Amino acid sequence: MHAISVVLVALMALLHAYILVLEMFLWQRGPGRGLSGFDAELARATAPLAANQGLYNGFLAAGLVWGLIADDPTGRQVQIFFLSCMFVAGVYGAATANRRILFVQALPAAVTLATVVAAG
Which of 14, 16, 26, 108 matches a 20 to 30 Å C-alpha distance to 84? Predict the structure, then answer.
């Protein structure tokens, strides 16, 4: 179970690093606009907000990387903390912005969190 949790935590870190790139650097281009569904004008107007969100996603990714490289018990505790943050952010985003976030962020975070706890 430990190996599975390590792989899932790494995948969650990669997902949030990818979201950082989309929101900070590609928001006004095809991939970012495909994510948001915004036209060019709205993408341009919301780019600073998206970049801020992207930065937060980068912090989440960095936290998981820290959790992967830190010795236990700190590493495991850090993973639990950041996965919990991802889950809460995903639920909030699904409730306030787009239901899709529940399946892209909250559900994967919950599954990964469960594997980290189970690997204990």
Answer: 26
Per-residue pLDDT of the chain (120 residues; tens, 9 = 90+): 899 999 999 999 999 999 999 999 999 998 888 888 899 999 999 999 999 999 999 999 999 999 999 999 999 999 999 999 999 999 999 999 889 999 999 999 999 999 999 998
Q: Chain-centre distance of CA 69, in angstroms?
A: 18
How far apart CA 113 and CA 81 sit, in angstroms, is: 9
Q: For residues 120 and 115, what is the distance between their CA atoms, to the nearest angstrom? A: 8
Cis peptide preceding 108, ω within 30 of 0 = no
